[in-house]
Specification:
The complex is a heterodimer of chains A (270) and B (288).
Chain A lengths: L3 H12 L5 H6 L7 H23 L1 H7 L1 H14 L14 H6 L10 H16 L8 H9 L3 H5 L1 E5 L4 E5 L3 H7 L17 E8 L2 E6 L2 H11 L4 H11 L5 H10 L3 E6 L10
Helix pairs in contact in A: 3-5, 4-5, 4-7, 7-10, 11-12
Chain B lengths: L1 H5 L5 E4 L5 H7 L6 E4 L8 H10 L4 E4 L13 H14 L3 E5 L2 E4 L2 E7 L5 H18 L4 E3 L14 H12 L2 E5 H11 L3 H7 L5 E6 L3 E5 L2 E5 L8 H14 L4 E3 L8 H20 L8
Helix pairs in contact in B: 5-6, 8-9, 9-10
Classes of the chains: A mainly alpha (270), B alpha/beta (288).
Chain lengths: 270, 288
């Protein structure tokens, strides 16, 4: 006789495509045989999780068609099933999975399209924050000394995400929205893109940024200091007008708060 | 009345689904109460803000689908903490979960999976319900499952299992009448005997929903898909449940092929006519 833990382990494995023999033997063979009964549960697990992925990745689904998406989703669910019940966090690894899924190798832009969709999806579910009045934040910053200014680390709107791709994933995304011109085509050699994703009111949106501005924001959002971020952005894009780029952070309400990195203490052996 | 003590009116409510939220916010229709799936509101963002706006006008019940009360490996304490935080924030009129499991080896299977009705399972579920109630600081309602199989080693009748669970933990019962009809066909459960075996005082909510009828190799299987109007057999059993339990707050659930809000309101009105008739017949809800 199986313990409850063993029974649940066996059934979980069977529902994810594994061997069903042990759990079949534990099921009463009524009018319908045990395997057919287990198939009802297996079908629900597969179709409901595929629907979760399809909800997060509608453009990927459109690019590969429903049937292939179902095939890829099924393989992903088996390889990386959910580990918790909040389904809106399920699917974070789908882009990496597609990148390593041999049947997708003919579509090199697909993982980056998936990354854009995941950024939009998670931006929708990011916690809401009360943005401070821009002037209050500016006043607090103005009170800092020059040394302190270099150590600023900003907390940014938790819904923003930054992603870059060698493919025009923004145009691919737009061309695959409901109602888009079906004749429109996107040249894959259109060049790289640097995108900012953000929730505004009730929906997530994205836009393309010049490399310098994108670098500044992406580094700040990753928790790097103002000094480091500004230096890297200026290196990436010699044309960057840093004063304008910094000012835009305030006018666009991206900054929530700031802290100062600890002072590096000089040490010497004694 | 029981409904007054629990804060849930003895009326019909509907399961709140995302496509209906704008319309309900704009028109504030006369609905007894709303029920939401707890997991959908565990991320913050606009969905939670809109629910809090609705919370001003409607009692809200939290219905969890992911706690996995039947898991032999115990509860996911992070998830329990999230449910606790959400319940603190929303002050729901009811908090309910399922007599089922969905987690094994840390994998969440996104399905309410069947338990064998054994002494071992009773100990597992009782421990999990107690732990959840302790953490939440309130009584949990536990919903009877819809089943597509029964285990060979399952010696305790399901209704007795539920009744014993309420005795051991003090939890309440969410009696899903549609699930009883589905399980009756699929695994031979006897719905009227089941209602009789439940402790009437512990039943604080009823669920109603539609199901689909499938043919599997010549055998009829009912699928609990919440994708259509409440079927006649379910309305009949609902009347029997009201006669036995009194006028209990009742929910219309709809998840697949979601129709216009007006259809859910019609179904809720059909439930309210039966609630009113049960009161008229002298089946008053007792004080709990």
């Amino acid at each position: 006789m199986l313990t409850l833990a063993d029974l649940q382990r066996a059934m979980a494995a069977a529902l994810l495509g594994g061997d069903a023999e042990a759990v079949s033997a534990a099921v009463a063979p009524d009018a319908l045989d045990p395997e057919a009964r287990l198939a009802i549960y297996r079908h629900h697990v597969r179709t409901s999780l595929t629907a979760v992925l399809k909800d997060a990745y509608p453009v990927v689904c459109r690019l590969v068609d429903d049937r292939f998406f179902g095939y890829a989703a099924d393989a992903y669910v088996r390889a990386e099933p959910p580990t918790e019940p909040r389904l809106f966090v399920y699917g974070a690894g789908f882009a990496d999975f597609l990148a390593s899924f041999p049947p997708c190798h003919g579509l090199p832009y697909l993982p980056d399209v998936a990354r854009l969709e995941w950024a939009l999806h998670t931006a929708c579910h990011a916690p809401a924050v009360n943005l401070p009045a821009g002037t209050a934040l500016a006043r607090a910053l103005a009170a800092l000394t020059g040394d302190e200014t270099a150590r600023i680390v900003f907390a940014v709107d938790p819904s923003v995400r930054y992603l870059a791709s060698p493919y025009p994933v923004d145009r691919i995304w737009c061309a695959n929205q409901p109602g888009a011109d079906p004749e429109a085509s996107v040249g894959l050699d259109a060049g790289s893109v640097h995108l900012e994703v953000r929730r505004t009111r009730d929906q997530a949106v994205f836009r393309s940024l010049p490399l310098g501005e994108w670098t500044l924001r992406a580094r700040l959002a990753a928790g790097r200091s103002l000094e480091d971020s500004a230096a890297e952005a200026s290196t990436a894009d010699a044309e960057l007008n840093l004063a304008d780029a910094l000012s835009a952070l305030f006018t666009q309400g991206l900054l929530v708060d700031f802290t100062l990195t600890p002072v590096r203490e000089e040490t010497r052996p004694c | 009345m029981r409904g007054m003590t629990s804060g849930t009116p003895a009326r019909a409510g509907i399961g709140l689904r995302a496509p209906h939220v704008d319309e309900i916010l704009a028109t504030r229709p006369d609905l007894g109460w709303l029920e939401v799936h707890a997991e959908n509101y565990m991320g913050g963002g606009p969905a939670l803000a809109r629910l809090e706006a609705l919370r001003q006008d409607y009692p809200v019940s939290l219905h969890g689908v992911g706690l996995s009360l039947g898991s032999a490996e115990g509860l996911n304490l992070e998830h329990l903490a999230r449910l606790h935080a959400l319940a603190d924030r929303l002050a729901p009129c009811l908090v309910s979960e399922h007599l089922a499991w969905s987690v094994s080896g840390g994998v969440y299977l996104n399905h309410l999976l069947p338990l064998p009705w054994t002494d071992e399972a009773l100990i597992v579920v009782s421990d999990n319900v107690r732990r959840a109630q302790d953490r939440l600081g309130r009584r949990l309602l536990v919903e009877n499952p819809s089943s597509y199989l029964r285990f060979l080693d399952s010696p305790i009748p399901e209704a007795e299992f539920v009744a014993e669970l309420t005795r051991r933990t003090g939890c309440g019962v969410l009696c899903d009448v549609n699930n009883l009809v589905v399980s009756a066909v699929n695994v031979g459960l006897e719905p009227l005997a089941y209602l009789d075996a439940l402790p009437a005082d512990a039943v604080d909510e009823i669920h109603l929903a539609g199901h689909a009828e499938n043919d599997a190799d010549g055998v009829t299987v009912l699928i609990d898909d919440h994708g259509s109007r409440v079927r006649p057999a379910v309305w009949d059993l609902y009347e029997a449940a009201l006669a036995r339990f009194g006028s209990v707050p009742t929910l219309i659930e709809w998840d697949t092929d979601l129709p216009a809000l007006a259809v859910l309101q019609e179904e809720a009105a059909a439930a309210e006519r039966r609630l009113a008739a049960s009161r008229g017949a002298g089946h008053h809800a007792h004080t709990s």
